[in-house]
Amino acid sequence: MEQAMSDDIRTGEVAVNVPEASDASLRFIGRIRTPFTTRAECPRQGDPGDGPDCRLELDPVWAPGLDGLEAFEAADVLYWLDRSRRDLVAQSPKSDGRTTGTFALRSPVRPNPIGLARVRIVRREGPVLVVRGLDCLDGTPLLDIKPERCAFTVQAPAKPGVAS
Amino acid sequence: MEQAMSDDIRTGEVAVNVPEASDASLRFIGRIRTPFTTRAECPRQGDPGDGPDCRLELDPVWAPGLDGLEAFEAADVLYWLDRSRRDLVAQSPKSDGRTTGTFALRSPVRPNPIGLARVRIVRREGPVLVVRGLDCLDGTPLLDIKPERCAFTVQAPAKPGVAS
């Protein structure tokens, strides 16, 4: 399941030589549907407020796992960045120019290319959870959804009777 | 690498019958050192403020990946909950009694038992990142570290000159 490593390495980047990943195995539990069909269309980071509605389409066997999730405003979504190379320990993102350690970046290029987004829950439609705040490609494999209690409480809510 | 499923199922819980996970493979990039050696000792959720210092010990090959991470106050840490069963779509946590969908819980029992904690970065010591806010067992396999810009800005900081 390893993807071809199609990206060229940039100046300052460091690739490591490690054996094939084989410590644990993942199961895709569904697919993510977004309006983004090319990398150029993907936003740099999803917007849980104004981003487009995206769909987490679970395989039917896992659909009952969504029961109770609508009580939450937000969730952490984990997905598999199946087109990413996995051997860079230092990277030079194009927009930046400097070389930075992989774990100091949220780049999709990492030893375990697991994407993480904090999303706003819009509604559930049977085996589908509609959310906002994703930035991944259409068809991205889904790994997990976890409820999140305090993702969007950063700004204090307006007090009753106080104009905002 | 699948773990034995040692937990009994509780009333209302639903196990699904799915083929062995084989969609993608993970590479452990190190181990997490915590003071918690039994599940009973693990807090229900880590405390990034007052929790104990824990150590993310990276394999030497990945250590340069930490370069630049100390500029951040916080990080998302992903780890592998290698003792968890993976077949429950509905669960009845002991403390609660009700049955809830797996994706409406942050239980370690899930189809892909990837743990996620938002931690406070304390310091780096070569291939080791010292953090606060973890709740996992000592020896837990480490999968990924991602910088986080706004994890601990939920409470507004005290204003200069104002007693807190």
UniProtKB/TrEMBL annotation, chains A, B:
Residues 26-157 form the TsaA-like domain. InterPro entries: TrmO-like_N, YaeB-like, YaeB-like_sf, YaeB_N_sf. CDD domains: UPF0066. PROSITE patterns: TSAA_2. It holds the Pfam family TrmO_N. Keywords: S-adenosyl-L-methionine. Belongs to the tRNA methyltransferase O family. This is TsaA-like domain-containing protein. It comes from Roseivivax marinus. The lineage of its organism: Bacteria, Pseudomonadati, Pseudomonadota, Alphaproteobacteria, Rhodobacterales.
